[in-house]
Amino acid sequence: MAEIIVMGGGLCGMASALLLARDGHTVTVLERDPEAPPATVEEAWERWNRRGVAQFRLAHIYLARFARLLEAELPDAVSAVEAAGGWRHNFINNLPPTVTDRAPRPGDERFEIITARRSTMEHVLAGVAEREPRVSFRRGAAVAELLTGPAAVSGVPHVVGVRTAAGETIRADVTVDAMGRRSPLPRLLEALGGKPPHEEAEDSGFAYYGRHFHRDGGMPAFLAPALTALGSISVLTLPADNDTWSVTLYGSAAAAPTRRFRDPKVFERVLRACPLHAHWLDGDPIGNMVSIVSGADRRRSYVVDGAPVVTGVVTVGDAWACTNPSLGRGSAMALLHCVRLRELVRAGLDHPVALATAWADDTTEHLQPWHEATLQTDRQRFREMEAAIRGAAPDPLPAIMDAFGRAVAHDADVFRALMEIRQVLALPSEVFGRPGFLDRVLEVAEGRQMMSPPGPTRQELLDLIA
Questions:
Q1: CATH architecture of 3-62+116-201+297-371
Q2: Domain range list for the chain
Q3: Reduced to 3 states, what is the DSSP secondary structure of residue 336?
Q4: pLDDT digits (tens, 9 = 90+) for 151-190
Q5: What is the pTM of this model?
Q6: Which of 137, 183, 209, 210 is nearest to 314 (CA)?
Q7: Which of 260, 261, 274, 269 is nearest to 229 (CA)?
Q8: What is the pLDDT of residues 276-285, one digit of tens each?
């Protein structure tokens, strides 16, 4: 069995540590934030200082793919989330009212989610991880330097451990970078004289403004999709744990009026002008307004032109690739990545170069298609927002996507296909490649119009903001 370091004690780091430890490895988790989880879920929400997680108190949702993986791989974590007040919901219950065939289908259970606030989910997983005998946590342990040993290939650093900012030296057979979107791994590698990873990045251009609410007695009803496009802005309404939920407005980060959403009064005025969303404000606000600019959609590869630029270290989750959070796919993709890492380690750690290239290939096969599909969705939505700001007609959708959007509101199976994509259960290419699916979409869409939810026009929005 191996000695493994996991750099980063967030959700991805803890999931990696648990999966590897339960395979018999000894895992040390290094987390730079010094505070241990408080005693209760509510204390975690109110006062847990997670400076290393910029989105800690922003809206979160844990999609069906996350739930299915958690049930299969870490069932005790599922039980702990439920015990902590996590909310189960099946989005098939949200069939549009225009769908007449409302009969259940075999397999509908795959759409069920279990979700919570980020603070609750992290609090629960921290408890599970800290009870795991082969996992040890070091909080307040920032990684300052990578340690190297004999190179597996000439001129390429081989990582054999780390040195913390406090000067502690920890050695390992493999080191896992789970330090998130702001991972300093490229800088640490540069300090060793190593070559940089290949990086692809583009500014997603979104800014998010939101707040959490609480009301005894259950969640507000879904009268519109959880993510609803309304011209130059989008509304995100997400259930959480213990009768709490979040409401978020987001738009172009470059649009100055959008920044007024930070003002709770402006935020409420805009939501009250959205008839299918206004009731999500009918609760008691908990916490302050929070905001974040999503920054760059980025992907890194530490295998360049077929050769690794470093061995002995692998990246998972947002440290590998990150996108803007509106689709909620990050946690599901990260947990899938952690499971793939466990499978890689099972294959053996004796050949560092083979390990590095196999990990790059596996990530390209299983994770990269989801990252690229997310980028395509982001780009399309941003173009729509920019067109609405200019008062121009949006670019026409590809014909099949336009038909898909029109058919979703009228056909139960087309709606289920959309849910498969949104819940990270099946890639768009897989869904659209099924025999007969395109014909069904075109048949249902014939003669129908795209259904647009009610909300303020651009000028009405500007008046509300002003």
A1: 3-Layer(bba) Sandwich (3.50)
A2: 3-62+116-201+297-371, 206-293
A3: helix
A4: 999 999 999 999 999 999 999 999 999 999 999 999 999 9
A5: 0.96
A6: 183
A7: 274
A8: 999 999 999 9
